[in-house]
Amino acid sequence: MFIVLVAGAAPKLLEDLTDATLLAPEKAVLSCRISAGDPAAEVHWYRDGKEIYKSKKYEMTRDGDVASLVLATTETTDSATYRCEAENKHGKVKTQCTVVVQSTCYAVLNSVKYRTLMFLQRRRKW
Predict the structure, then answer these.
(1) Taking residues 54-78, what's their average pLDDT?
(2) Contact 83/5 with Cβ under 8 angstroms?
(3) Ranges assigned E (strand) in 56-112
(4) 44: left (phi over 0), alpha (psi -120 to 50) or beta
(5) Amino acid 110: pLDDT
(6) What is the pLDDT of residues 63-72, one digit of tens each?
(7) In this model, does residue 20 exceed pLDDT 50?
(8) Strands, E, within 36-77: which ranges?
(9) From CA 44, how far away is CA 67, in angstroms rounded?
(10) Distance in angstroms (rounded) separating the CA atoms of residues 64 and 13
């Protein structure tokens, strides 16, 4: 009789990605913590279900158990669901977040609307 031991471990998700609302053209850094497992898991990033790769727009980094996706500058079209997956032969983990990128004009308009609304509410109290 033979006993076969399979050494190794699946990756584990230690900290999820978090949703973010940004103001264009801010830099965005999406980070999660993943224990890589054994053998070390490969990490892949997705935007609205499509894999994304290193480019002028995107940079993927790993520093210990922190996996990050950096968007050098953001535009409103970068609003999407981003997902990080880590996989080795023993298993796979994934986490996702929603990123909303607002234009500067939108933020200013919302601020003006808010101040106008607050002014009108204060006036009604008199």
Answers:
(1) 96
(2) no
(3) 58-63, 66-71, 80-88, 91-102
(4) beta
(5) 59
(6) 999 999 999 9
(7) yes
(8) 42-47, 50-52, 58-63, 66-71
(9) 10
(10) 13
Q: pTM of the full predicted structure?
A: 0.79
Q: What is the pLDDT of residues 87-113, one digit of tens each?
A: 999 999 999 999 999 987 755 555 555
Q: How many angstroms separate the CA atoms of 96 and 2, rounded?
A: 42
| Tokens 């997705």 belong to residue | 46
How far, in Å, are 28, 47, 80, 113 from residue 35 at the CA level?
Answer: 23, 22, 26, 45
Task: Return the H-helix or E-strand segment holding 29.
Answer: strand 28-35
* Integer Cα distance of 79 and 103 in angstroms: 11
Rounded distance, CA 51 to CA 107, Å? 30
Structure tokens at 65: 């158990």
DSSP 107: H
For residue 82, give the amino acid letter: Y
d(CA 70, CA 54): 10
Q: For each of the domains in the chain, give its residue range(s) and CATH number, in order of start.
A: 12-125 (2.60.40.10)
